What we know:
Elements (H helix, E strand, L loop, with lengths): L1 E7 L2 E6 L9 E10 L4 H6 L8 E2 L3 E9 L11 E4 L2 E2 L5 H4 L10 E2 L11 E5 L3 E3 L6 H4 L2 H13 L7 E5 L3 H12 L4 E6 L2 H9 L4 E4 L5 H8 L5 E6 L4 H10 E9 L11 H10 L2 E4 L11 H12 L9 E6 L3 H6 L10 E5 L11 E3 L5 E3 L3 E2 L8 H14 L3 E3 L7 H14 L8 E6 L7 H12 L6 E4 L25 H17 L5 E4 L3 H7 L9 E5 L7 H9 L3 E5 L23 H10 L3 H11 L3 E2 L7 H6 L8 H8 L36
Parallel strand pairs: 11-12, 11-14, 12-13, 14-15, 15-16, 17-18, 21-22, 22-23, 23-24, 24-25, 25-26, 26-27, 27-28
Antiparallel strand pairs: 1-2, 1-4, 3-5, 3-9, 3-18, 5-6, 6-10, 7-8, 19-20
Helix pairs in contact: 4-5, 4-10, 12-13, 13-14, 18-19
Amino acid sequence: MKAAVLCANEDVRYLDYEEPQVAPGMVKVRVKASGICGSDVPRVLENGAHFYPIVLGHEFSGDVTEVGEGVTKVKPGDRISGAPLIPCMKCEDCQNGNFSLCKHYSFIGSREQGSNADYVVIPEQNAVPFDKRISYEQGAMFEPSTVALHGLLQNDYKGGEYVAILGGGTIGAFTMQWAKIFGSKKVVVFDISEERLALAKRLGADEVINTTKEDYMDEAKAITRGKGYGYVFETAGQAPTMHMAFALAGNKAHVCFVGTPHADLVFMPKLWENMNRKEFKLTGSWMSYSAPFPGKEWELTAHYFATGQLKFDPGFIFKKMPMSQAQEAFQMFKEPGAVKGKILLMNEEKVDPAAVPKKKLYTGTEMPCIGMGTFGSDRVSAPEVSEAVAGAIRCGYRLFDCAACYGNEDKIGEVFEKAFAEGTVERKDLFIMSKVWNDMHRHVEEACRKSIADLKCGYLDMYFIHWPFPNYHAPGCDVDSRNPDSRPFSVEEFMDTYRQCEELVEKGLIRHIGISNMTIAKMDAVLPLMKIKPAAAEIEMHPAFQQKEIQKYLEERDILPIGYMPIGSPRRPERDIMEEDIVDLELPEIQEIAKNHGVHPAIVALKWAHQNGQLPIPFSVHNYYANLKCVTEDPLTEEEMASIGTLERGNRLVKGHVFLWEGAKDWHDIWDDDQSGTEYF
């Protein structure tokens, strides 16, 4: 097998390594994701390893491949997370259920071989099975979640109190969520990072406070009306936040230190007196175990991740990197503050591109039946999108949907260029699509050549007119923004843009023309005027917005319907989210089908799109393997397809407010909704 082996200080090598063998009572796991813990960093960078060589890694998830004699808890094929502590089970602390305090313990990934490898073997009791709706990335985050929950359990947590979370990192974010799940009057997260505070808000924090503000303590006390906080959890391991905990605590409060300090900590007499006068309880929390081993911390994490009440946000993860790049990953920690979140080392799964069904265009050209979108909205940076594209290519994706206005084509182009140079894939094997943005409708060739240059792809397999009018708005603008030059759809203007695209076909710059965000009335007006028929049309399509009429219209004309936002885009920009919007993945019918198939609801939406005749183009930074694989196996039944067919709610998510022109009543005018008899002739 392959493993990331720590051979000496700062020397991690990706090597052929002896594959661990299963013994009685043991479980062999094919590792999918392995997180780099803060405790791993000094082992690599500060001569902190117990011995060399060693395979580190103790925050992991994967699939059971083999079980030893006597194992009944799990079976091959089960998806599990691993509890890394191996207590002796014989000492007084173990006998009392205090496994974290065992003095004779072993530990996966520090005292014995860990999970930064193809395989790891663990005791049966350390295997924590979880539902297949939970991703491997989530599975690798079980350990931090359980550490957070252990802190609450150590303090006999009861709801109805004000709760302060000091530190908005991974442990802090999970502690906040557990406090919310188990009831609280209000949970407030304190941090110096606006990015981490924003993550806390997304995950459900009632309030967030930036402690760099001069008056932050006044703000914190005002929330409780001067009473102070009933529970204070310090998760940062920093002297200032530990001192802060004493100041925020109310009378008879519970103060818990979860974070581990890495510098001298001095409490002046006055500060200590504060504890005496308030009579609060100060406790420490170490690791994440209770009886029966590994404890309710692990059981509850598996349950609440599966139900979605314990939320997993991509903001938890700083980077996903192939296991082969472990050395590069650890080197990133040498720059203080450079790593902002969890780094996951991945044993990447692959789908044979030949196994992915194809769609045939009217030209005879075949393209994969599912692709990767590259719109990162406001939540995913261009480098993060490009990293996902790189992983997707290695995974087996061959169709990529790009656009000039996404602001990331140059970064994606670097990925394509590297993949071509390394022989990972050839240009002819990829189907690359881009779009001309609204401000370039009179300069289509210039826009096209720039996209080709940025994407470093030589030509485009398909080039879309992104919107059927030149109404421009700046990226990221508010939905209430209006450009005074905006105007209604014009057949003449649209056809001028389209004829420029036809010229691009003739010049060999593009292979096919696509249209996007069109209505039947608009297509009726322009299709007869075209010399080259469009090969595909991108339209918003998902279970709560199925667009059956327009899909039938396209299919009758041999134009491929490509569905964007196929899972309802739960992470679209905040400015585009309206109170009345339906969350497709929360529909009971979708969730029930997902439960029956043992998959995430997003997978159900993609299966439905594929089986319904659409070509979906989902975007995911983390779950692209599952998205691609889902079209190759376990189709939905006729009954399940029929059930989803009843979920139409008219739930258009991309309304296009910013494109409205003077005189337009509202966004419905963009889609001809109130003018069913509209004719653009």
